[in-house]
Amino acid sequence: MSVIAGTIFQDTHKPLTMWFRAIWWITGQKNGVSALGLKGILGMGSYQTAWSWLHKMRAAMVRPGRDRLTGVVEVDESYVGGEKPGKRGRGAEGKALVVVAVEDKADKGIGRIRMAIVPDASARSLTPFVKASIQEGSTVRTDGWHGYDGLKSSGYNRIVERKDSCVGDKPLKLAHLAISLLKRWLLGTHQGAVSLEHLAYYLDEFVFRFNRRTSTHRGLLFLRLLQNSVLGEPLPYKKIVKHVRGPKSMNHNIQGLA
Fold first, then answer.
1. Is 143 helix (H, G, I), strand (E, B) or coil?
2. For residue 229, is pLDDT > 70?
């Protein structure tokens, strides 16, 4: 059995040294990279190969069994994409509903974050995100939206910051900051050319970079992503394009990140 079987490198036709160069370059770029940039740096002949490599490494940025957020955690949602505000719990054409959890470290500012796409703002969608992202016993700060009403029975101490519940309208402070930085990153690094059907992979990259924003050791970032790449499952190109995480595929790019 090959030593790369069961990793993101499985079935690759390129030498591992090229993958290592790609990981080194990706972790060294503060604001992320594009497939076109990776193609040029590595001298790849195919844009499709560079694009699929980036998605594989974005998936590897999520460490299996990673620690959940703790302490005081702010949770809110916002629509990403489209030009008009959406209606909470109903979805909106051309938009993805992104839920964000942000550790509040008080005087130290924002701690770690988690982000995910959810199909709607119901308790059936929001509670699993909270359970997967936040340690039981933590204090979860939300607005008054009824989609969070079951958190207390799930083992969380819920604090309602405000009573109104219009998604995207004056979101909670820390969540608003995280979402704003995400939208700025999507527009800046990727020029808004991110399809909603692949947005979840970009959320993984943004969270990975944000949670390591204060790191000054490029080698440690390289080592972490390399370790995750070995621990992660194979992600064939066909799976990337056909089995998309998040809501139903929408075949257009993010525009006017409202």
1. coil
2. yes
56 and 119 belong to one structural domain = no
* Cα(67)–Cα(74) distance, integer angstroms: 17
pTM: 0.85
pLDDT, tens digit, 9 for 90 and up, residues 101-116:
999 999 888 999 999 9
Q: Are residues 141 and 231 in the same domain?
A: no
pLDDT in tens, 196-226: 788 899 999 999 999 998 887 878 899 999 9
- Which DSSP string corresponds to 181-240? HHHHHHHHHHTT--BGGGHHHHHHHHHHHHHTTT---HHHHHHHHHHHHHHSPP--HHHH
Nearest of 113, 119, 56, 73 to residue 250 by alpha carbon: 119
Cα 115 to the center of its chain, rounded Å: 5
Residue 250, C-beta contacts closer than 8 angstroms, at least 6 positions apart: 94, 96, 195, 196, 197
Query: Could you list the residue range(s) of the whole structural domain that residue 55 is in?
Result: 16-61+215-241
Which residues make beta-bridge pairs with 93?
none
CATH number of 93's domain: 3.30.420.10
* Mean pLDDT score, 17-28: 94
